User: Fold these one by one.
Assistant:
Number 1:
Amino acid sequence: MSDIGQGSIWTRPEKAERSGPGRRPGYSRAQITEAAIRIADAEGIDAATMRRIAQELGTGAMSLYRYVPKRDDLVDLMVDAVLGEVELPERPSGDWRADLSLVAHQTRAAGLRHPWQVTLARRPTLGPHSLRIYDFALRALDGFGLHIDEMTSLCGMVGDYVASAVRDEIGWLDQARRTGMDRRRWMGEYVGPYVRQVVESGRYPMFNRTIREGRLAHLPPDARFQYGLDRVLNGIAAALPDGASIEDR
């Protein structure tokens, strides 16, 4: 049976539950979340169970449910804690492109440090760190006369791009760990002979162009990420009033 009626974890203040007469709790949500993240970073998100977290903390699993009642609560806390690593100034600089670039690069870095995030099909957590980033990005586009829905959509383009790019990057890193073949070696040795057959067949002329003329696949990860991000930001610039773009890359 669904326990959605309990409401979001953010609406339930952390209670100072007692474990016995006159005794204060030995743990907090923050400690539980930190332990869960350590486990997920090392072993994957599926390993971050209450039982495993309890072992990490040296306590019983049931005692932790007083602080984090259900699995969705734990994942929300974990995701928001990771977003707490995104370092942003108190307010946007006034250069919307630089501000959204900062959000993108910081979010990418946090995602790469915690690859388990890409396995999650997530709704918005609406935790304090998530809201801080969301508010900062929207404020970067405020003042151009855009409707809030358009601002939200434009910021969503950045978020979607970062999520997709990080997922792709982590996929290649995982491939390298499992097979010992990085992106360049996989493309050259594993699929290279097949690609040559496809090119020689002449059946897919646009694919042939990507092989013969394309440079993006050969760039290092940081440069590939920046290339795509620049195109996303150019798309946002096109939605802003004339003169709002700092530069046209």
Number 2:
Amino acid sequence: MSAIAIGLHIGQEETVITLMGADAAKRVLVLQLGSQRIAQHYFHHVPPTPDEMENAIMVVEDEISRIRHDIPAGSQLFSNDPLLLNIALLAGVTPSKSPELSLAATELTFDRLARVINGRPAHVEGLPEERDFAATLLILREFMHHLAFDKIVMVS
């Protein structure tokens, strides 16, 4: 059995996951997680407070765990989402035709965000201050971590 390609798009109100099999069959899953939805419901400060982030993490984890059995082992994660490409570039990924953002680099970028949340100026960490950015990074990190993706490939 060949690997399933998983397409990821984090929108403003929801996250869309497209599973594409070798036979070109598609299946679409929708999570009630979006950059603005999370930012508006859970992040009341810029940057979010540690408690706000912790509450958002729990919600994101719960929603992602709902689909964990729908994602086949060995799947490969892809995205053409400009917001995710921006995160990859902020994580230090070299621009290329199909840049790859590793889970380790995503975790390090989230660690930088955590330093901002705990009082370090965002510009020192080279990160945007926007709540939507924090929400998008959170969703990506939790998605990769809890569904065991070691990387995401950016495609055009």
Number 3:
Amino acid sequence: MKTYFVYILKCADDSFYTGITNDLERRLYEHNVGFNKDSYTFKRRPVELVWYEMFTEPTQAIMIEKKIKGWSRRKKQALIDEDWDKLVRYSKNYTEYGKDDSSTSL
């Protein structure tokens, strides 16, 4: 059975990169050696793997990767930290709950 990984890297500039691969070890190596000079991570090395999830269905992995790519930084950080309360809070509508991370009334 083939496996697919959706992953988040933390880059040297403190940004996050979200990707998908069928070989996580190889892909992390490629990011760190600068395999592709046109890639987002090339000028942001070294990178560190901070989160990943394994899937057996490629369509599900692609769907999750696209979803995470659309998330805010704070929502990605909540996922990495496994802070489910914050993840739910950051999933709420901004117009109703605001963008401010210091919002503690929820």
